[in-house]
Amino acid sequence: MNDEIHNLVKEILEARPECRESDMRLAFLFYKIKEPDFFPSDKNPMNVLKFFSHLENRTLPKLSSITRARRLLQRNYPDLRGDNWKARQNKATKRTINYVKGQTYKDVAIQEHQYHTEKLATVK
C-alpha cells in the first residue's frame, strides 16, 4: 500500500498546490479520491463510525501514513514544497540558534568536560 499512498499523494501535491501547506486538505482529498463514499457529491458523506472502521480495518491509510508520504516526497522533490516551506525552515533554525545561545559558555564547557570524562572512563 505504501507505493499506492506515495503515488496518490504525489498526484495530489502536483495538481493541488494548496495541499502542500495543509495536511488536512491533503488528507481530505486523499480520502475523497481513495474512498468514493467518503464525501460524494450526490449523497450524504460517510459517517464517522464507518470512516474509523475503515481506518481500523486498514482499508484506508492512517493520517500519519499520508503525512509521512508528503514529507518524504517534499524532501525528495523540492518543487512539491509549499511557498511557505523556506520561511518555516528559517524560523525553526532561528529558534534552535536562540535555544543554543541561551546556554551559557560555562554550561557548554561543563557538559563537554563531563562528556569527555565519561568517555575516558570507558576507555580505561
Structural write-up:
This protein is an all-alpha fold. The protein has two domains: 82 residues, no CATH class; 41 residues. 69% of the residues lie in helices and 0% in strands. It contains six helices and no strands. Helix 1 packs across helix 4. The longest helix is centred in the last third of the chain and has 19 residues. The chain is elongated and about 70 Å long. The mean pLDDT is 86.
- Overall mean pLDDT: 86
Query: What count of helical segments does DSSP give?
Result: 6
Integer count of domains: 2
Order of helices and strands: HHHHHH
Rg over alpha carbons: 22 Å
Question: Spans of 5+ residues with little confidence (pLDDT < 50)?
Answer: none
Number of strands: 0
The biggest beta sheet, please?
Answer: none
Task: Please render the helix and strand layout as text.
Blueprint: H1 2-15, H2 23-34, H3 48-56, H4 63-76, H5 85-101, H6 105-123
Helix pairs in contact: 1-4, 2-4
Summarize this, please?
The chain is an all-alpha fold and 124 residues long.
